[in-house]
Amino acid sequence: MIRPDLSLPIPADITAAHFIGIGGSGMSGLAGMFLDRGIRVSGSDRADSPAMRALAARGADVHIGHDAAHLPDDADTVVHTGAIWPENPEFLLAKERGLHVIHRSQALHWLVGGRRLVSVAGAHGKTTSTGMIVTALRGLGTRPTFVNGGVIADLGVSSATGDDDVFVIEADESDGTFLLYDTSIALITNVDPDHLDHWQTREAFYDGFVRFADGAREAVVISADDPGAARVAAALSHRRVVTFGEAGDADVRVSDIVTDGPVSFSLTAGGETAHGRLSVPGAHNAINAAGAVAVLVALGYELERALRAVEGFGGTARRFELHGVTRGVSVYDDYAHHPTEVAAALSAARTVVGGGRIIALHQPHTYSRTQEMFREFADVLETHADHTVVLDVYGAREDPVPGVTGELVSGAFTDPGHVHFVADWQEAADYAAGVAREGDFIVTLGCGNVNLIIPQVLESLARAEG
After folding, report:
1. Which of these is catalytic: 126, 135, 243, 382?
2. What pairs with residue 220 in β-bridges?
3. Which residues form the Mur ligase N-terminal catalytic domain (predicted)?
4. Which end of the chain is more exposed for a tag (fewer CB within 10 A), N or C?
């Protein structure tokens, strides 16, 4: 992978931009926003995708596969993700030509261009919280520009150009790029040490969040419940810190959470109390809503009005997303790829499954995370799911590590009768379908490509029915 060099200069003017990895949800969104600015856009990716076809329909010059010939002669800027290899031929040619070669976060920084920026950071809940803020702002009659890590269900897009001064982004702490942005309001959902392949130590990880928060020009909105967030909050020197959560001393306090179905709750701030109900399940979403409302209050909206607007949020893609029901078995997908996220996703599923069982289909993400956290994954899966099917590791940007496979997770279960490790996807789909019975949920878990197994699961269920 290529680590972002945030010291590289960002061009003042861009007329023709080439995106290496243009098909990803984040990169395709950025490319679309460049098109909105009237900038010529080209790009490439390993495989075709609906996002690439949509960009092509708008006039972008897109290519499948990476080849130096795909880099246009008139390109003045090349945008890349950290996931490409240093040997990428388009990357090498751009360097040889002396073009501006910038990380996607630098391209986003260029797009923000001095607007009032709301940056959402945290180990978990970023995409949902960003979606809640964007949905609410639109419901309040504004059109913010936004870049989210997932598709907002009601809008059908992960990013869009608006005409309001507010710009909302999901800020990435995984590689430190959230420190690049000139943030006005920082929302920190939680601080659960992760991505130590970049940060190296937990102390460096916490310090990164302190610098991110203290750099916010207007306000810091931070969890009052999360121990890591509390550690960060204690180190802040910022003049305006707003806390949210169930803690009794939270500035925006959540109480009376009811999770039997779509979650309902109360929020109290400044002596005022408002009651809310979301269309998405899980106590964690009541907490996410509190953070979103706290941001809206910091932007100048009243508590009651802000909460009513957040209630309009209908979810994001790959966050407890229903893909089909076959033989009475509901098949969901969730992006959860950290033990805390897995516990939250399965707890939310438990509130709505009724008398059915939960069958987790878990794809470990990256060798480094699996090696460090396989015991924690096993514990939360065994605690919150009735049965677990573990796939092999999705390596993403990492090279394989000898001995680190999905079997590390399954082998750490205390009761081997509750887990089954299957490297072959068709066998895994057949096994999950064979275990499931009417009323059960099958939930795929992971931020790799595990969602692509869902059609196989649904077909296996249909065959079992016949």
Report:
1. 126
2. 186, 241
3. 18-113
4. C
